[in-house]
Design a protein that fits this description.
Helix content is 30%, strand content 31%. The chain is built from ten helices and 17 strands. The protein has helices at 14-25, 92-104, 223-233, 282-297, 310-325, 330-340, 343-350, 356-365, 368-378, 380-388, and strands at 5-10, 33-36, 47-51, 62-66, 68-72, 77-81, 87-91, 109-112, 117-124, 127-132, 135-144, 156-169, 178-184, 192-201, 204-213, 239-253, 264-266. The structure holds flavin-adenine dinucleotide (FAD).
Length: 389
């Protein structure tokens, strides 16, 4: 049977386009790449932020950089000086436009929009058959980056649900040189809920309400809190919402994140693209895209995301378990992290580049009694005690 493509990427979002970009620039031995994307047109639908550590291929696309951040709870106000590794913002609209322009100028990669992939690819001799809204498509390799169809309680240890709005205020109420990474309020019942504020100008900011919870939350569930957060940040002045974005990201996917079938890999959020403890995925996706492009250029099979080092997996899991079991501790844990760990070490830890010493600093910065409680709760004897009442 004739095969239509060497590699077919299901979904042309962050992961699909990041890989397409690398292969469009240098295809090597993989000369027929197809990206199947459901949407008709790309819009600025999300804002990617991450810490800048080294010169980066997207430097020219960065719209804002902050050298000062703040993490606040009712008990503590922590100023974070990140001049060495500024926190920077890339608008997805700029990224999509840039990748589309690169793809338009070459032959190896074809981006097909308005094509919805239906169901799961089916194994055929020499590859896979993919059923789409535009008919059947055959390919030697599949890279599936489609997001979770219906995020559910139990599929991840916690879900990060958020609703963000870019507001234009009639008065100058924001300080554009400092972003609020996390501002915790009192919540009843106790929840890990906070506001994230990226000031873009004195009268413009992206204000986001975020919740870490075992249950994924629809943006509408966050609407009332968001309205309150925006009103408070605009200090009662009239404002206009110019754009909104929302997401539900897995924090600690349960079960095997990757399907290991010959010539079929899962990548992006469902392939382990998101760091469990933070939900941040943009930089991890870039690292994966580089690795996967190297394999494909050499004529090898595609690869999925590399597993995190065991110690990182263990630390992230324990951290999430603590947030799950004792959400009231969330504000004190995050403020302790930012107050007690030197910023370069914390940034390396959050950006998957931690040394052993960085990890040790993170561990010693946190109130150990909470973590010991959680470790004790893991012991079989704790379950037995619970069972006995
Ligand atoms: C609003 C928002 C803000 C975020 N902010 C940050 C941040 O600041 N920093 C950070 O590191 N991470 C952030 N993330 C997390 C992560 O970086 C993004 O979710 C990222 O887009 C994940 O990439 P992906 O390729 O896995 O998924 P997506 O980018 O969502 O791509 C999946 C693609 O698949 C397409 N698709 C879906 N179903 C089908 C189908 N059946 N057929 C064909 N195509 C299909 C979709 O249209 C989409 O284009 C954010 C996420 C969101 C939603």
């Amino acid at each position: 049977m004739a095969i239509d493509a060497d590699v077919t990427v299901l979904g042309g979002g962050c992961a699909g386009l990041s890989l397409a970009l690398r292969l469009a620039e240098r295809p090597g031995r993989t000369r027929r790449v197809v990206v199947l994307e459901a949407r008709d047109a790309y819009q600025h639908d999300r804002t990617w932020c991450f810490w800048r550590q080294t010169p980066d291929r997207f430097d020219a696309l960065i719209r804002h950089r902050w050298e000062h951040l703040r993490v606040r709870s009712p008990e503590r106000d922590v100023e974070v000086d990140c001049r060495l590794t500024p926190y920077q913002m890339l608008e997805s609209g700029d990224f999509y436009a840039y990748v589309q322009a690169v793809i338009a100028g070459q032959q190896a990669v074809r981006l097909e929009t308005s094509v919805t992939v239906r169901g799961e690819p089916v194994r055929i001799p020499g590859g896979w058959r993919v059923e789409t809204s535009a008919g059947d498509h055959t390919t030697a390799h599949v890279i599936d980056t489609r997001p979770p169809r219906s995020p559910g309680r139990g599929d991840a240890l916690l879900w990060q649900s958020f609703l963000g709005e870019e507001v234009l205020c009639e008065q100058p109420v924001f300080a554009p040189d400092r972003a609020d990474l996390m501002e915790f309020d009192e919540t009843t019942p106790p929840e890990v809920a906070f506001t994230y504020v990226l000031p873009l100008a004195v009268d413009r900011a992206l204000i986001e309400t975020t919740l870490f919870h075992p249950q994924p939350h629809h943006p509408e569930d966050l609407r009332a809190r968001q309205r309150q957060a925006v009103a408070q940040r605009c200090r009662g002045a009239p404002y206009r919402i110019v754009r909104s974005e929302s997401g539900i990201l897995p924090m600690g996917l349960r079960g095997a994140p990757t399907k290991t079938r010959a010539g079929y890999v899962v990548a992006g959020l469902m392939g382990g693209g998101a760091r469990p403890a933070t939900g941040y995925a943009f930089q991890r996706i870039q690292v994966w895209a580089e690795r996967c492009a190297v394999a494909l250029r050499a004529g090898r099979a595609p690869v999925t995301h590399a597993a995190d080092p065991r110690l990182t997996q263990w630390m992230d899991r324990l951290f999430l378990e603590v947030l799950h079991a004792e959400p009231a501790c969330g504000p004190s844990l995050f403020t302790a992290l930012f107050a007690n760990v030197p910023t370069p070490r914390l940034v390396r830890f959050l950006s998957d580049q931690a040394t052993l010493l960085d990890r040790a600093c993170v561990v010693t910065a946190l109130p150990y009694s909470i973590f010991l409680r959680q470790l004790f709760a893991r012991l079989p004897v704790s379950g037995l005690r619970r069972d006995l009442g």
